[in-house]
Amino acid sequence: MNKDKKKQKIDEKSKVEDLEEFREYPEGKGLTTDQGVKVNHTDDSLKAGKRGPTLMEDFHFREKITHFDHERIPERIVHARGAGAHGYFECYESMSEYTMAKFLQEPGKKTPVFVRFSTVAGFRGSADTARDVRGFATKFYTEDGNYDLVGNNIPIFFIQDAIKFPDLIHSVKPEPDNEIPQASTAHDTFYDFVVSAPETTHMIMWALSDRAIPRSYRMMEGFSVNTFRFVNMEGKGRFIKFIWKPLLGVHSLVWDESMKLGGEDPDYHRRDLYEAIDNGDYPEYELYVQMVEEEDEHNFDFDILDPTKHWPEELITPKKIGKLVLNRKPDNFFAEVEQVAFCPGNVVPGIDFSNDPLLQGRLFSYIDTQLIRLGGPNFHEIPINRPLAPVHNNQRDGYHRHTINTGKTSYFPNTLGDNCPKPVPREDGGYVHYMEKVEGKKIRDRSDKFKDFYSQARSFYNSMSEPEKQHIISAFHFEVGKVESKEVRQKMVDQFANVDKGLAVAIAKGVGVSPPPNGADSSTADNFPSFSMENTVKDTVKTRKVAILAENGFNYDELVKVKDALEDAGANSEIISMYLGMIKADTGQEIEVDKNYISTASTQFDAVYVPGGKESVETLKKRGDVIHFVNEAFKHCKAIAAVSEGMDLLIESDITGFSISKGEITSDKGVVTTVDNTQIKNFAKSFIEAIAVHRHWNRGTKEEIPA
Question: What catalytic activity is recorded (predicted)?
Answer without folding.
Answer: 2 H2O2 = O2 + 2 H2O
